[in-house]
Amino acid sequence: MQGGIIHNDLNGHNGTIRAGDVQWLTSGRGIIHSEMPEEEVNNGLQLWINLPSHDKMIEPKYKVQSSLDIPRAEEKGVEVKVIAGDSMGIQSLVYTRTPTTFLNFTLKPGSQTHQTVPQLWTVFAYIIEGDEGVFGSLNSSSISAHHVVVFGPGDLVNVWNKSTSRPLIGGDRLAEIDMAFEDYQNARNGFEMAKCLRSQ
């Protein structure tokens, strides 16, 4: 969202992620990497997604998607960047092994949007900026910037905006990561070079 992050890892990937870009890192059987700030002020978001058990030991993958390459749509004062999943008839260009929806909405004052989601997913919204975002029903209390809204079971997310707001909606599954921690601590299953990585 602001600034830049310099990435490098033991698989030879390196580069700088700029504001609006998306970095996709699939750790699979294990990868060691560093992320260092390029500028004095850096702001960004990370979403960690659990891999299905049958994909835990795949080879690591790395991809950077430029902000200009992220599909987007606009309708009735609502703009959406489709980072993963689909919205407003637009499909993300990225395949996620764990079904995921990651959408960045910008709502103009007075606008509203409705997003369908799979009923059994964990769904939440994070407000990047603005203080008049309303979720659920128009009579609900407004949510200000830097707060998270976690939704209960259902298949529809309703959002209204009384001023400028940028809610981020994502769906994911919860992770079981004990084995990954153990592999890292014992330098195995992809973490064999863990002690060799030095940030540049």
TrEMBL record:
Pfam families xref list: Pirin, Pirin_C
Domain called Pirin C-terminal: residue spans: 103-167
PANTHER family in the record: PIRIN-1, PIRIN-RELATED
Protein name per the record: Pirin N-terminal domain-containing protein
Taxonomic source organism: Arabis nemorensis
Record domain Pirin N-terminal: where: 1-49
Upper lineage: Eukaryota, Viridiplantae, Streptophyta, Embryophyta, Tracheophyta
Family assignment from sequence similarity: Belongs to the pirin family.
InterPro entries (UniProt xref): Pirin (IPR012093), Pirin_C_dom (IPR008778), Pirin_N_dom (IPR003829), RmlC-like_jellyroll (IPR014710), RmlC_Cupin_sf (IPR011051)
